[in-house]
Amino acid sequence: MKHIKLDAIDSTNEFLKGLSSIKVVDNFTVVTAENQTKGKGQMGSSWTSEPTKNLIMSVLVNDFLFDKNRIFEINIVTAITIIEALQTFDIPKLSIKWPNDILSDNKKIGGVLIENCFKNDCKIISIIGLGLNVNQIDFEQLPKASSLAVICNTTFDKESILFKIVEKLKYNCLIWKDNKEIFLLKYNNLLFKKGIPMPFVQQSQQKFMGIIQGVTTSGKLKIILENDSIVEFEIKEIQMLY
Ligand code: BTN
Question: CA-based angle 60:65:69, to the nearest 5?
């Protein structure tokens, strides 16, 4: 595995994107940083992480996506990969909060930001960024966040977790094509609050109650509403309130 270790960088995703724009970067090249000064989160948010404590990583995957209409497939594989890797470290009560937050019990321990670069030759290069809270203990400003160390009451070796994630990612990318239904089933079985009535808020700020049924292959969240209709929502359209 090609591993570029950085002490500090604005964003590992930006670094890897920049590198791949000027040269050919091997598949599954990993960039990690001890400190990220401008970490990017989903939907324009920022990602903060206490220096040295957590896993801040980006992996380049260049032979997985071939169809811009099936981008969500890499989210499915990524989320399952992270969960499977964490299961080997006995992290309890793992789930995926749609689209790809990683939770233990009801606390967010990891966030994923996947950025896809569409090349002229129709190839798609994916930069999978993961911020995994590993040994950080203090989450005073973030009541819904936690770390492996807080949950398990012990410290973890970040590098072992990194190796396990990349090993599983390579394997899952390899077997994906012949096992798509199984991956989708796994993803849906791991969905946070699936089957439980929950409040949601729409972009328009309108609130409603609904029950998550699962996600579609294109990544839409299927929710059954109070009038028994099933509606599919795009990623930016709704947020679960919990
Ligand atoms: C989220 O909002 O939940 C996604 C957070 C993703 C953070 C990771 S940290 C490594 C990589 N580099 C970034 O700038 N962001 C991702």
Answer: 135
Annotate 228-239 with DSSP letters as a single string: S-EEEE-TTTEE
Could you give the CA distance from residue 60 to residue 193 in angstroms, rounded to a whole number?
31
- 3-state SS string for 63-101: CCCCCHHHCHHHHHHHHHHHHHHHHCCCCCCEEEECCCE
Q: Within 10 A of 18 (CB to CB), how many other CB atoms are there?
A: 11
In the structure, what pLDDT confidence band is assigned to residue 66 with cuts at 50, 70 and 90? confident
Cα(219) to centroid(ligand 1), Å: 19
pTM for the model? 0.96
% residues pLDDT > 90 (the chain): 91
Distance 174 CA to ligand 1 centre (A): 24
Alpha helices in 47-192, H assignment, sequence order: 72-87, 148-152, 158-175, 180-189
Rounded to the nearest angstrom, the distance between the alpha carbon of 225 and the centre of ligand 1 is 32
Task: Reply yes or no: is the peptide bond before residue 92 cis, omega within 30 of 0.
Answer: no
Average pLDDT of the chain is: 96
- Tens digit of each residue's pLDDT (9 = 90 or more) over 166-175: 999 999 999 9
Q: 65 with 75: CB under 8 angstroms? A: no
123 confidence band (pLDDT: 50, 70, 90) = confident
- Distant-in-sequence, close-in-space partners of 180: CB < 8 Å, separation ≥ 6: 73, 217
Residues with CB under 6 A from ligand 1: 11-13, 39-42, 45, 47, 56-58, 101, 111-113, 129-131
Percent of the chain with pLDDT over 70: 100
